[in-house]
Design the sequence.
DNA sequence: TGTTAATGACTGACTGGACAGACAACGAAG
DNA sequence: CTTCGTTGTCTGTCCAGTCAGTCATTAACA
Protein backbone atom coordinates (compact mmCIF):
# COMPACT_ATOMS: atom_id res chain seq x y z
CA UNK A 1 0.00 0.00 0.00
CA UNK A 2 1.25 3.52 -0.72
CA UNK A 3 1.43 6.05 2.01
CA UNK A 4 -2.12 6.67 3.08
CA UNK A 5 -3.66 10.06 2.75
CA UNK A 6 -3.08 11.12 6.31
CA UNK A 7 -5.80 12.52 8.52
CA UNK A 8 -3.05 14.22 10.45
CA UNK A 9 -2.17 16.30 7.47
CA UNK A 10 -5.81 17.14 6.92
CA UNK A 11 -6.04 18.37 10.49
CA UNK A 12 -2.79 20.26 10.15
CA UNK A 13 -4.21 22.12 7.19
CA UNK A 14 -7.45 22.91 8.99
CA UNK A 15 -5.54 24.14 12.04
CA UNK A 16 -3.24 26.21 9.90
CA UNK A 17 -6.20 27.64 8.03
CA UNK A 18 -7.79 28.65 11.33
CA UNK A 19 -4.72 30.56 12.38
CA UNK A 20 -4.02 32.03 9.00
CA UNK A 21 -7.57 33.20 8.43
CA UNK A 22 -7.58 35.03 11.73
CA UNK A 23 -4.46 36.90 10.71
CA UNK A 24 -5.17 37.52 7.04
CA UNK A 25 -8.93 37.27 6.63
CA UNK A 26 -10.75 35.09 4.16
CA UNK A 27 -8.66 36.40 1.32
CA UNK A 28 -5.73 34.56 2.86
CA UNK A 29 -3.80 32.95 -0.01
CA UNK A 30 -4.02 29.16 -0.09
CA UNK A 31 -0.26 29.13 -0.50
CA UNK A 32 0.04 30.81 2.87
CA UNK A 33 -2.23 28.29 4.53
CA UNK A 34 -0.28 25.42 2.99
CA UNK A 35 3.02 26.88 4.14
CA UNK A 36 1.69 27.43 7.66
CA UNK A 37 0.62 23.78 7.66
CA UNK A 38 4.06 22.65 6.50
CA UNK A 39 2.61 21.23 3.31
CA UNK A 40 3.15 21.97 -0.35
CA UNK A 41 0.81 24.36 -2.07
CA UNK A 42 -0.45 21.65 -4.38
CA UNK A 43 -1.05 19.15 -1.58
CA UNK A 44 -3.73 21.35 -0.16
CA UNK A 45 -5.77 20.61 -3.25
CA UNK A 46 -5.45 16.87 -2.79
CA UNK A 47 -7.27 17.24 0.54
CA UNK A 48 -9.72 19.94 -0.47
CA UNK A 49 -11.06 20.33 -3.98
CA UNK A 50 -11.24 24.09 -3.86
CA UNK A 51 -10.66 26.90 -1.44
CA UNK A 52 -14.40 27.13 -0.88
CA UNK A 53 -14.49 23.45 -0.04
CA UNK A 54 -11.77 24.00 2.54
CA UNK A 55 -13.77 26.82 4.09
CA UNK A 56 -16.92 24.71 4.27
CA UNK A 57 -15.18 21.79 5.93
CA UNK A 58 -13.37 24.05 8.35
CA UNK A 59 -16.58 25.76 9.35
CA UNK A 60 -18.30 22.47 9.99
CA UNK A 61 -15.36 21.13 11.97
CA UNK A 62 -15.20 24.17 14.23
CA UNK A 63 -18.92 24.33 14.74
CA UNK A 64 -19.03 20.66 15.65
CA UNK A 65 -16.17 21.04 18.09
CA UNK A 66 -17.91 23.95 19.74
CA UNK A 67 -21.21 22.15 20.03
CA UNK A 68 -19.61 19.04 21.56
CA UNK A 69 -17.67 21.13 24.03
CA UNK A 70 -20.89 22.78 25.14
CA UNK A 71 -22.70 19.57 26.09
CA UNK A 72 -19.89 18.06 28.17
CA UNK A 73 -20.48 17.06 31.79
CA UNK A 74 -24.24 17.36 31.71
CA UNK A 75 -26.20 15.92 34.64
CA UNK A 76 -29.56 14.85 33.17
CA UNK A 77 -31.10 14.70 36.63
CA UNK A 78 -30.40 18.33 37.44
CA UNK A 79 -32.89 21.15 37.04
CA UNK A 80 -33.17 22.63 33.59
CA UNK A 81 -31.64 25.90 34.66
CA UNK A 82 -28.61 24.17 36.17
CA UNK A 83 -28.13 22.04 33.09
CA UNK A 84 -28.34 25.00 30.83
CA UNK A 85 -25.97 27.01 32.95
CA UNK A 86 -23.51 24.14 32.58
CA UNK A 87 -23.90 24.36 28.79
CA UNK A 88 -23.44 28.11 28.94
CA UNK A 89 -20.28 27.77 31.00
CA UNK A 90 -18.87 25.10 28.72
CA UNK A 91 -19.69 27.13 25.67
CA UNK A 92 -18.24 30.41 26.83
CA UNK A 93 -15.22 28.70 28.32
CA UNK A 94 -14.47 26.91 25.06
CA UNK A 95 -14.84 30.13 23.12
CA UNK A 96 -12.76 32.15 25.56
CA UNK A 97 -9.95 29.61 25.49
CA UNK A 98 -10.06 29.16 21.70
CA UNK A 99 -10.18 32.73 20.51
CA UNK A 100 -8.71 31.90 17.13
CA UNK A 101 -11.23 29.22 16.39
CA UNK A 102 -13.98 31.54 17.42
CA UNK A 103 -12.72 34.36 15.26
CA UNK A 104 -12.35 32.09 12.29
CA UNK A 105 -15.86 30.84 12.86
CA UNK A 106 -17.18 34.38 12.93
CA UNK A 107 -15.43 35.21 9.67
CA UNK A 108 -16.64 32.08 7.97
CA UNK A 109 -20.21 32.63 9.13
CA UNK A 110 -20.49 35.85 7.19
CA UNK A 111 -18.33 34.81 4.29
CA UNK A 112 -21.08 34.02 1.81
CA UNK A 113 -18.94 31.02 0.84
CA UNK A 114 -20.84 28.48 2.88
CA UNK A 115 -23.16 26.14 1.06
CA UNK A 116 -26.70 25.57 2.32
CA UNK A 117 -25.66 21.96 3.01
CA UNK A 118 -22.94 23.13 5.33
CA UNK A 119 -25.34 25.47 7.10
CA UNK A 120 -27.84 22.66 7.55
CA UNK A 121 -25.23 20.26 8.85
CA UNK A 122 -23.92 22.88 11.25
CA UNK A 123 -27.42 23.53 12.48
CA UNK A 124 -27.82 19.85 13.28
CA UNK A 125 -24.77 19.80 15.52
CA UNK A 126 -26.54 22.38 17.68
CA UNK A 127 -29.70 20.31 17.95
CA UNK A 128 -29.15 19.24 21.57
CA UNK A 129 -28.68 22.83 22.72
CA UNK A 130 -31.63 24.04 20.72
CA UNK A 131 -33.74 21.31 22.34
CA UNK A 132 -32.95 22.60 25.80
CA UNK A 133 -33.81 26.12 24.73
CA UNK A 134 -37.13 24.86 23.45
CA UNK A 135 -38.02 23.58 26.91
CA UNK A 136 -36.74 26.68 28.65
CA UNK A 137 -38.90 29.06 26.73
CA UNK A 138 -41.94 26.77 26.72
CA UNK A 139 -43.63 28.43 29.72
CA UNK A 140 -42.16 31.88 29.38
CA UNK A 141 -42.93 35.05 27.44
CA UNK A 142 -41.28 33.66 24.30
CA UNK A 143 -43.41 30.54 24.12
CA UNK A 144 -45.12 31.81 20.98
CA UNK A 145 -42.05 33.28 19.33
CA UNK A 146 -40.49 31.51 16.36
CA UNK A 147 -37.80 29.12 17.52
CA UNK A 148 -35.32 30.58 15.04
CA UNK A 149 -35.66 33.95 16.71
CA UNK A 150 -34.99 32.50 20.15
CA UNK A 151 -31.93 30.65 18.88
CA UNK A 152 -30.68 33.83 17.24
CA UNK A 153 -31.06 35.70 20.53
CA UNK A 154 -29.18 32.96 22.36
CA UNK A 155 -26.32 33.01 19.88
CA UNK A 156 -26.13 36.77 19.93
CA UNK A 157 -26.14 36.92 23.72
CA UNK A 158 -23.47 34.25 23.87
CA UNK A 159 -21.34 36.17 21.40
CA UNK A 160 -21.61 39.40 23.32
CA UNK A 161 -20.85 37.57 26.57
CA UNK A 162 -17.79 35.88 25.14
CA UNK A 163 -16.53 39.18 23.79
CA UNK A 164 -16.82 40.68 27.23
CA UNK A 165 -15.07 37.71 28.84
CA UNK A 166 -12.23 37.99 26.36
CA UNK A 167 -11.85 41.72 26.90
CA UNK A 168 -11.71 41.38 30.66
CA UNK A 169 -10.56 37.85 31.51
CA UNK A 170 -10.00 38.69 35.18
CA UNK A 171 -13.74 38.77 35.79
CA UNK A 172 -14.60 36.15 33.20
CA UNK A 173 -16.62 34.10 35.63
CA UNK A 174 -18.73 37.05 36.71
CA UNK A 175 -19.33 38.10 33.12
CA UNK A 176 -20.33 34.57 32.23
CA UNK A 177 -23.03 34.66 34.88
CA UNK A 178 -24.08 38.16 33.86
CA UNK A 179 -24.72 37.03 30.30
CA UNK A 180 -26.51 33.90 31.41
CA UNK A 181 -28.84 35.80 33.70
CA UNK A 182 -29.58 38.32 30.97
CA UNK A 183 -30.50 35.55 28.56
CA UNK A 184 -32.57 33.76 31.19
CA UNK A 185 -34.52 36.93 31.96
CA UNK A 186 -35.20 37.35 28.29
CA UNK A 187 -36.45 33.91 27.38
CA UNK A 188 -37.53 31.93 30.41
CA UNK B 1 -15.02 77.74 -13.27
CA UNK B 2 -14.97 74.12 -14.41
CA UNK B 3 -17.63 71.63 -13.52
CA UNK B 4 -17.52 71.02 -9.78
CA UNK B 5 -16.79 67.58 -8.47
CA UNK B 6 -20.38 66.54 -8.05
CA UNK B 7 -21.79 65.32 -4.77
CA UNK B 8 -24.42 63.57 -6.85
CA UNK B 9 -21.81 61.34 -8.36
CA UNK B 10 -20.32 60.62 -4.99
CA UNK B 11 -23.73 59.54 -3.77
CA UNK B 12 -24.29 57.52 -6.90
CA UNK B 13 -21.09 55.61 -6.23
CA UNK B 14 -22.00 55.00 -2.60
CA UNK B 15 -25.46 53.81 -3.59
CA UNK B 16 -24.06 51.58 -6.27
CA UNK B 17 -21.50 50.19 -3.84
CA UNK B 18 -24.27 49.36 -1.38
CA UNK B 19 -26.15 47.37 -4.01
CA UNK B 20 -23.10 45.75 -5.50
CA UNK B 21 -21.60 44.72 -2.18
CA UNK B 22 -24.84 42.98 -1.23
CA UNK B 23 -24.72 40.96 -4.43
CA UNK B 24 -20.99 40.28 -4.69
CA UNK B 25 -19.60 40.65 -1.19
CA UNK B 26 -16.69 42.83 -0.18
CA UNK B 27 -14.52 41.34 -2.89
CA UNK B 28 -16.74 43.10 -5.40
CA UNK B 29 -14.46 44.55 -8.07
CA UNK B 30 -14.28 48.32 -8.05
CA UNK B 31 -14.87 48.19 -11.78
CA UNK B 32 -18.24 46.60 -11.08
CA UNK B 33 -19.18 49.27 -8.58
CA UNK B 34 -18.15 52.00 -10.99
CA UNK B 35 -20.18 50.46 -13.78
CA UNK B 36 -23.22 50.10 -11.57
CA UNK B 37 -22.85 53.77 -10.68
CA UNK B 38 -22.62 54.75 -14.34
CA UNK B 39 -19.14 56.11 -13.83
CA UNK B 40 -15.78 55.25 -15.31
CA UNK B 41 -13.53 52.87 -13.45
CA UNK B 42 -10.94 55.54 -12.91
CA UNK B 43 -13.42 58.16 -11.70
CA UNK B 44 -14.13 56.11 -8.64
CA UNK B 45 -10.58 56.81 -7.54
CA UNK B 46 -11.05 60.55 -7.90
CA UNK B 47 -13.78 60.37 -5.26
CA UNK B 48 -12.21 57.75 -3.03
CA UNK B 49 -8.49 57.30 -2.64
CA UNK B 50 -8.61 53.54 -2.29
CA UNK B 51 -11.16 50.80 -2.12
CA UNK B 52 -10.71 50.73 1.64
CA UNK B 53 -11.43 54.44 1.79
CA UNK B 54 -14.65 53.87 -0.11
CA UNK B 55 -15.66 51.18 2.35
CA UNK B 56 -14.94 53.38 5.35
CA UNK B 57 -16.94 56.30 3.99
CA UNK B 58 -19.81 54.06 2.99
CA UNK B 59 -19.95 52.49 6.43
CA UNK B 60 -20.04 55.85 8.12
CA UNK B 61 -22.71 57.18 5.76
CA UNK B 62 -24.99 54.19 6.34
CA UNK B 63 -24.49 54.16 10.08
CA UNK B 64 -25.26 57.86 10.29
CA UNK B 65 -28.38 57.46 8.22
CA UNK B 66 -29.56 54.64 10.44
CA UNK B 67 -28.91 56.54 13.64
CA UNK B 68 -30.74 59.65 12.41
CA UNK B 69 -33.70 57.56 11.30
CA UNK B 70 -33.91 56.04 14.76
CA UNK B 71 -34.26 59.30 16.66
CA UNK B 72 -37.01 60.81 14.50
CA UNK B 73 -40.31 61.93 16.05
CA UNK B 74 -39.20 61.69 19.64
CA UNK B 75 -41.44 63.25 22.31
CA UNK B 76 -39.07 64.34 25.07
CA UNK B 77 -41.97 64.64 27.52
CA UNK B 78 -42.99 61.00 27.19
CA UNK B 79 -41.96 58.23 29.55
CA UNK B 80 -38.59 56.67 28.90
CA UNK B 81 -40.12 53.40 27.83
CA UNK B 82 -42.40 55.10 25.28
CA UNK B 83 -39.53 57.13 23.92
CA UNK B 84 -37.34 54.14 23.57
CA UNK B 85 -40.08 52.13 21.93
CA UNK B 86 -40.35 54.91 19.39
CA UNK B 87 -36.63 54.62 18.72
CA UNK B 88 -36.98 50.87 18.42
CA UNK B 89 -39.83 51.19 15.93
CA UNK B 90 -37.97 53.76 13.87
CA UNK B 91 -34.84 51.66 13.88
CA UNK B 92 -36.43 48.38 12.90
CA UNK B 93 -38.64 50.08 10.34
CA UNK B 94 -35.68 51.75 8.70
CA UNK B 95 -33.78 48.48 8.60
CA UNK B 96 -36.74 46.50 7.33
CA UNK B 97 -37.35 48.96 4.52
CA UNK B 98 -33.68 49.29 3.61
CA UNK B 99 -32.57 45.66 3.49
CA UNK B 100 -29.69 46.33 1.15
CA UNK B 101 -28.25 49.09 3.28
CA UNK B 102 -28.55 46.89 6.30
CA UNK B 103 -26.85 43.95 4.62
CA UNK B 104 -24.04 46.11 3.38
CA UNK B 105 -23.62 47.50 6.88
CA UNK B 106 -23.40 43.99 8.30
CA UNK B 107 -20.76 43.01 5.77
CA UNK B 108 -18.72 46.14 6.35
CA UNK B 109 -18.89 45.73 10.13
CA UNK B 110 -17.00 42.48 10.00
CA UNK B 111 -14.75 43.37 7.09
CA UNK B 112 -11.63 44.17 9.04
CA UNK B 113 -11.21 47.07 6.59
CA UNK B 114 -12.62 49.72 8.89
CA UNK B 115 -10.19 52.09 10.53
CA UNK B 116 -10.43 52.81 14.27
CA UNK B 117 -11.31 56.39 13.30
CA UNK B 118 -14.31 55.19 11.36
CA UNK B 119 -15.41 53.00 14.25
CA UNK B 120 -15.10 55.89 16.66
CA UNK B 121 -17.01 58.24 14.39
CA UNK B 122 -19.73 55.65 13.90
CA UNK B 123 -19.97 55.15 17.63
CA UNK B 124 -20.57 58.87 18.07
CA UNK B 125 -23.56 58.86 15.77
CA UNK B 126 -25.20 56.38 18.13
CA UNK B 127 -24.55 58.54 21.19
CA UNK B 128 -28.15 59.65 21.62
CA UNK B 129 -29.45 56.10 21.59
CA UNK B 130 -26.70 54.90 23.91
CA UNK B 131 -27.62 57.71 26.29
CA UNK B 132 -31.19 56.48 26.54
CA UNK B 133 -29.97 52.95 27.16
CA UNK B 134 -27.80 54.26 29.95
CA UNK B 135 -30.84 55.64 31.75
CA UNK B 136 -32.92 52.55 31.09
CA UNK B 137 -30.49 50.16 32.66
CA UNK B 138 -29.61 52.50 35.54
CA UNK B 139 -32.03 50.96 38.04
CA UNK B 140 -32.15 47.45 36.61
CA UNK B 141 -30.13 44.27 36.87
CA UNK B 142 -27.57 45.54 34.37
CA UNK B 143 -26.73 48.71 36.27
CA UNK B 144 -23.26 47.41 37.03
CA UNK B 145 -22.55 45.80 33.68
CA UNK B 146 -20.11 47.47 31.29
CA UNK B 147 -21.96 49.83 28.99
CA UNK B 148 -20.33 48.28 25.94
CA UNK B 149 -21.88 44.97 26.81
CA UNK B 150 -25.34 46.48 27.13
CA UNK B 151 -24.95 48.23 23.80
CA UNK B 152 -23.81 44.99 22.21
CA UNK B 153 -26.87 43.20 23.54
CA UNK B 154 -29.12 45.94 22.21
CA UNK B 155 -27.54 45.78 18.78
CA UNK B 156 -27.73 42.02 18.72
CA UNK B 157 -31.36 41.97 19.78
CA UNK B 158 -32.21 44.59 17.20
CA UNK B 159 -30.46 42.56 14.53
CA UNK B 160 -32.30 39.40 15.40
CA UNK B 161 -35.60 41.28 15.52
CA UNK B 162 -35.04 42.88 12.16
CA UNK B 163 -34.17 39.52 10.66
CA UNK B 164 -37.42 38.11 11.94
CA UNK B 165 -39.40 41.07 10.63
CA UNK B 166 -37.81 40.67 7.22
CA UNK B 167 -38.51 36.96 7.11
CA UNK B 168 -42.15 37.39 8.00
CA UNK B 169 -43.21 40.91 7.07
CA UNK B 170 -46.91 40.17 7.59
CA UNK B 171 -46.46 40.18 11.33
CA UNK B 172 -43.68 42.74 11.36
CA UNK B 173 -45.41 44.92 13.92
CA UNK B 174 -45.90 42.03 16.32
CA UNK B 175 -42.30 40.90 15.93
CA UNK B 176 -41.10 44.43 16.54
CA UNK B 177 -42.90 44.47 19.88
CA UNK B 178 -41.67 40.96 20.68
CA UNK B 179 -38.07 42.01 20.28
CA UNK B 180 -38.57 45.21 22.21
CA UNK B 181 -40.14 43.41 25.15
CA UNK B 182 -37.35 40.85 25.16
CA UNK B 183 -34.72 43.57 25.31
CA UNK B 184 -36.64 45.46 27.97
CA UNK B 185 -36.88 42.36 30.12
CA UNK B 186 -33.18 41.84 29.77
CA UNK B 187 -31.90 45.31 30.63
CA UNK B 188 -34.50 47.37 32.51
C1' DT C 1 -22.80 87.62 -29.10
C1' DG C 2 -19.38 84.62 -31.17
C1' DT C 3 -14.65 82.92 -30.74
C1' DT C 4 -10.89 81.17 -28.27
C1' DA C 5 -8.04 79.56 -24.56
C1' DA C 6 -7.65 77.65 -20.03
C1' DT C 7 -9.22 74.52 -16.75
C1' DG C 8 -9.65 70.24 -14.27
C1' DA C 9 -13.12 66.64 -13.67
C1' DC C 10 -13.61 62.69 -15.96
C1' DT C 11 -12.41 58.57 -18.88
C1' DG C 12 -11.00 53.76 -19.87
C1' DA C 13 -7.18 51.15 -21.65
C1' DC C 14 -3.38 49.55 -19.37
C1' DT C 15 0.04 47.62 -15.85
C1' DG C 16 2.05 45.11 -12.29
C1' DG C 17 1.23 41.98 -8.90
C1' DA C 18 -1.22 38.41 -6.71
C1' DC C 19 -3.56 34.22 -6.57
C1' DA C 20 -6.32 29.65 -7.53
C1' DG C 21 -5.70 25.68 -9.37
C1' DA C 22 -3.27 22.46 -12.89
C1' DC C 23 0.30 19.44 -13.91
C1' DA C 24 4.52 17.09 -14.82
C1' DA C 25 7.95 15.10 -12.20
C1' DC C 26 9.29 12.62 -8.03
C1' DG C 27 9.84 9.06 -4.68
C1' DA C 28 8.07 5.76 -1.30
C1' DA C 29 5.73 1.49 -0.91
C1' DG C 30 4.42 -2.83 -2.84
C1' DC D 1 8.18 -1.89 -12.49
C1' DT D 2 3.75 0.02 -11.11
C1' DT D 3 0.92 2.78 -8.24
C1' DC D 4 -0.31 6.78 -6.14
C1' DG D 5 0.32 10.50 -2.62
C1' DT D 6 3.12 14.47 -2.74
C1' DT D 7 5.61 18.33 -4.53
C1' DG D 8 6.47 23.05 -6.22
C1' DT D 9 6.69 25.33 -10.45
C1' DC D 10 3.87 27.27 -13.78
C1' DT D 11 -0.09 29.56 -16.10
C1' DG D 12 -4.22 31.94 -17.05
C1' DT D 13 -7.17 35.07 -14.82
C1' DC D 14 -8.53 38.83 -12.27
C1' DC D 15 -8.24 43.17 -10.16
C1' DA D 16 -6.70 47.64 -7.68
C1' DG D 17 -4.93 51.54 -8.96
C1' DT D 18 -2.54 54.66 -12.75
C1' DC D 19 -2.09 58.05 -16.31
C1' DA D 20 -2.13 60.18 -20.76
C1' DG D 21 -5.62 62.13 -23.02
C1' DT D 22 -10.63 64.02 -23.74
C1' DC D 23 -14.12 67.34 -23.48
C1' DA D 24 -17.76 70.05 -21.21
C1' DT D 25 -17.71 74.31 -19.13
C1' DT D 26 -16.40 78.86 -18.29
C1' DA D 27 -13.87 83.40 -18.45
C1' DA D 28 -11.84 86.73 -21.34
C1' DC D 29 -11.98 89.40 -25.07
C1' DA D 30 -13.52 91.52 -29.39
Sequence:
Amino acid sequence: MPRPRSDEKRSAILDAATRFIVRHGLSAPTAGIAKEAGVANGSLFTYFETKTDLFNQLYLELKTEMASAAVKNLRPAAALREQYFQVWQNWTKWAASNPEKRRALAQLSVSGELSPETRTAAHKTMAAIAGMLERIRANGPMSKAPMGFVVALMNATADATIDLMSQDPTHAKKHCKLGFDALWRMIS
Notes: Residues 1-3, 27, 29-31, 41-42, 44-45, 50-51 of chain B lie near DNA strand D (CB under 10 Å from a C1'). The interface with chain A takes residues 25, 27, 106-107, 110, 112, 141-142, 145-146, 148-149, 152-153, 156-157, 159-161, 163-164, 167-168, 175, 178-179, 181-183, 185-187 of chain B (CB under 8 Å). Chain B has a mean pLDDT of 92.
